């Protein structure tokens, strides 16, 4: 029974430390905020079809 209670205490401590870190200093995303070039320039895309807004 002692081993189980030590395991539960360790798991609770690790969970508390994890959430404290996530809430106080969350990871920063390094994803690009601008869309890809293929989304920006649809007028010159190879896949334009006649009823689309391609010029």
Mean pLDDT: 77
Order of helices and strands: HH
Chain oligomer state: single chain
Which stretches are low in confidence, meaning pLDDT under 50 for 5 or more residues running? Answer: none
Shape: rod-shaped
The number of distinct helices, counting runs of at least 4 residues, comes to: 2
Largest sheet features: none
Distance between the termini: 75 Å
Please provide the count of β strands.
0
The radius of gyration is 26 Å
Structural class: mainly alpha
Strand content: under 5%
Portion of residues in helices?
A: 40-55%
Signal peptide: 1-19
Keywords: Signal
Descriptive overview:
With 55 residues, the chain is mainly α. Keywords: Signal.
Question: What attributes characterize this protein structure?
Answer:
signal; single chain; mainly alpha; 55 residues
SSE layout and pairings?
Blueprint: H1 2-24, H2 37-40
In a few lines, what is going on in this structure?
The protein has two helices and no strands. By secondary structure, it is mainly α.
């Amino acid at each position: 029974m002692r081993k189980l209670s030590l395991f539960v205490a360790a798991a609770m401590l690790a969970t508390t430390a994890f959430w404290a870190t996530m809430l106080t200093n969350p990871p920063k995303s390094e994803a690009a905020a601008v869309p890809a070039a293929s989304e920006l320039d649809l007028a010159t895309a190879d896949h334009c079809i006649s009823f689309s807004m391609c010029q």
